[in-house]
Amino acid sequence: MPGRFACLRVPRFLVASLLRAEPELRGVPLVVCDADSRASVLDVSPEAHRVGARPGLTVAQALIRHADLIVRPLDAAALAAARAALLEVARSVSPLVEEVGAGEGADGPAEDDARGGEVVLDVGGLERLFGSPAGIAAALARRAERVGLAAGVGIADGRATARIAAAAAVARREAMLVAPGEDAAWLATQPLAMLSRVCEADLAARERRGWAAAVERLARLGVTRCGELAGMPVDEVASRLGKGATQMWYVAAGRDRSPLRPCVVPHEHVEGTRLEYGVGSLEALLFVVRGLLDRVVARLMTASLACGGLTLALELEDGSRVERAIGVLAPTRDVKTLTLLVRSALETAPPHAGVEAVHVVATPDRPRANQLDLFRPAGPAPARLATTLARLAALCGADRVGRAVPPAGHRPDAFGLLPFEGKCGAVTPAAERSELPLVGSCAALALRALRPPRVAQVFVEAGRIAYVRADGFGGRAVVSSGPWRIDAEWWSASPCRRDYYDVQLSDGGVYRLYRDLDAGCTESTWFVDGCYD
Amino acid sequence: MPIAPRLVAELNAHLPGAVRRGDVPQDRGGRERLPTGFESLDAALGGGLPRGHLSEIVGPATAGLTTLVQRFLGHVTGQANVAAWVDAPDAFDPASAVAAGVDLERLLWVRPPDLATAFVATEALLALGGFPLVLLDARLAACSRGHRSTVAPPSGERWRAGRDRRMAGALHVWLRLARAAARSRSALVVLQRQPRGGRARGALAAASVSAGSSAAVRLELEPLRVVWDRTGGAPTLLDGLVAQVVVARNRIGSSAPSRVVLEIL
């Protein structure tokens, strides 16, 4: 059974990667130049092409043709992010993905269409998921647009035919779907030059020259369409025009069966950009970061994932590099929340010099899901809960939001905090729940904890507590109860030996006091750690 | 007589109140109640604290306010609901909560660094929805005086002007929270400190700005006596507390003030 391939092709990929990072440049005559020398033009936007700018010119030559050209150096980080985004789009449709001609745009000047970011994927059998080839093409184009790339989609039986179809789709601005078994018939009407241009990315430099020479010789013979080449006897083509023309014949005849070379799609989602000058203001930096987060979240959404963690890498003017790991309490896709987390991290420890380049690495995680119960109340929606938790963590601190859990040790004032998951479903019977240690004489009254415990002055008369004074309250002891001794963690380096007392003061309050039996003579030994309420 | 009404009549005769129209909700306009777990208080409130409204509970230290609220929380989480506790003074004690029957897996505990953040966190939780009960502990005074300097009042004229501004700002905040509670159909319960036997003054007044007219229900707790067990020469034990709950305001129930005595033993 013949395979079925789709090709996703983004024309003028260097410009497309830059426009993805700076959408405000859309519609202007834009020229991308070499990042190091800034002398030669690598790629041009359609608007710049209309006013005469071409890849291969020097920047000075291009500016002579049109003085209002916007010249931007090649942003390697933005280019890498765009390539990764294109791969992820393809990966979201099919697990078998091949990146074609990786790095061809950055290597040097070439014909404009040949510089497109291009991905081929195996779509055999995917009609059952997407309904039809048109459904597959629409899904690919829609997802590419969601990550900021306008791509042409071609689908055919052969890998090379799919690539030629994608090139034709870019020119026609609509998906090109070649019906099964119709590769040869569709290719027959296509210009030979297009076949050569599209397929040259697969070839080594020597083979590429051979193909170009064969096309030139065929053109002199009046052979300009693929169908005309395919109509010739292949052995005659081989003997008269050489190996390059023979390979071309197989493609033109729709007999290309070159296999897909699957690549590994990276697990981390990285977005980055290099700034024109060092940025020292937090607001300006956050503006840039917000754009990066927008794009990285769009990529995560394409793969039906959420952001489970962030790493912010900053390249500074003094040549140093700073990395900040930013914890996300619950996987989220909310850019506002993630920006808040980044702001909080930057405010806590601002970079010591101007920022020249920013990279955001998102760790993907599965969004939370919840199985609803027919007979019990539904809690908060998992996705919105995750976003709210992340926002609360940014506001209050990640260690201050969650659900309390029994402490690992035996200290009465200890507790743990775990991420809150909004548990639904059956109620745990009270008898089966973890019990926490209660210290003191009363289980009926709840305790309001004082964190940290207040240092207290306690006056003892005839072995009984007579007066208590602490920050914020104090008075004569009316009734006292205790001591209730605990001797916990005696095996550890920081044992906890305390005598607890419940004391009702003349101000009406009942407080829980303890005397630290391990405190030295110079340290305070009495503390108030709660008030019964 | 048509067969359907006859069947309904027969069923009602055998099982009174068992057959009701399915298309008419029993409780409309956000008047659903969350029972507190104290029968006498629920009776005085008309079934419990209302969902979709702001309720304010005030009381001095050792008036049983925390115990009342934790038992309420235990009742709510015991019915498979989730709840949130926004703990501005960072005074929530998990051990006491478990003893009061709270299922900690269903309780989101938020410990904001100050009162302003607590308001923002509460509003975010109400906007999220899905929490039948959101508790905001706004008691930052007395026992928690050393917690944050934001509540310490300046002196003299400057203090009075600052207090007015805070009051105006706070009123705005309570209105926002009350509206957010109405939208999410959550019961928003705000805990406030009140000094013994009178109005708040000084630092206490600056720290606890009442929800005022934004509160649909206002409960005032007054401690009557602390109960100690001193029987038989055994060590003295703290047994519990007897407190009085005054339903000072109940806009969506009986308007007459009522008093309930709670024995927390």
Keywords:
heterodimer; A: about 525 residues; alpha+beta; Dna Ligase, domain 1; five-stranded mixed beta sheet; B: about 260 residues; Rossmann fold; eight-stranded mixed beta sheet
Q: Summed up, what is this model?
A:
Chain A is of the alpha+beta class and 533 residues long. In chain A, 33% of the residues lie in helices and 28% in strands. The longest helix of chain A is centred in the middle third of the chain and has 21 residues, at 282-302.
Fold and architecture overview:
- Chain A is an alpha+beta fold and 533 residues long.
- Chain A has 3 domains: 5-252, no CATH class; 269-365, DNA polymerase, Y-family, little finger domain (Dna Ligase, domain 1); 447-532, no CATH class.
- Chain A is built from 17 helices and 20 strands.
- Chain A has helices spanning 13-21, 46-50, 59-65, 76-91, 104-107, 127-130, 133-146, 159-172, 183-187, 192-199, 205-220, 226-230, 234-241, 243-252, 282-302, 335-348, 382-396; strands at residues 5-10, 30-33, 41-44, 70-73, 97-100, 117-122, 152-156, 176-177, 269-279, 306-316, 321-332, 355-365, 401-405, 416-418, 447-461, 464-470, 473-488, 496-505, 510-516, 526-532.
- Chain A has a 6-stranded antiparallel barrel. In chain A, strands 5-6-1-7-8 form a 5-stranded mixed sheet.
- In chain A, a hairpin with a 4-residue loop joins strand 18 and strand 19 (510-516).
- With 265 residues, chain B is α/β, with parallel strands linked by helices.
- Chain B has a single domain (27-264), classed as P-loop containing nucleotide triphosphate hydrolases (Rossmann fold, 3-Layer(aba) Sandwich), CATH 3.40.50.300.
- Chain B has an 8-stranded mixed sheet with strand order 5-4-6-7-3-8-9-10, sandwiched between helices. Chain B has a two-stranded antiparallel sheet with strand order 1-2.
- In chain B, helix 5 runs parallel beside helix 6.
- The chains are: A alpha+beta (533), B alpha/beta (265).
- Strand 13 of chain A pairs antiparallel with strand 5 (107-110) of chain B, so a sheet runs across the interface.
